[in-house]
Amino acid sequence: MPITIKVDLTIRDDMVSDFHEMILEDQKSALESEDGVVLSFDIVNDETSPNDFTLYQTSTSKEGLHKHMKEHFYRWKPFMNTGAVLAYKHTYI
Prior knowledge:
The chain has helices at about 15-30, 60-80; strands at about 5-10, 40-45, 50-60, 85-90. By secondary structure, it is an alpha+beta fold. A 4-stranded antiparallel beta sheet has the order 2-3-1-4, with helices on one face.
């Protein structure tokens, strides 16, 4: 059964450009190289607060989502270690 994860993020002002570049690469690789595991990956940026983002990622199953998260975690770990992510919350919807 498909599952969607919603991720709300606040990115440090001086790192928004780096985040945007990283998340676009992650979006592209998730949609193109995972044998259809990721069905959609939407990035929403709050116009009134340019450092707030919401990500919606739908996968074929919870197992598929966990597989994606393990395979792409390396992109997040170095970015998060910079202190660029000020707030992070994820919810399964």
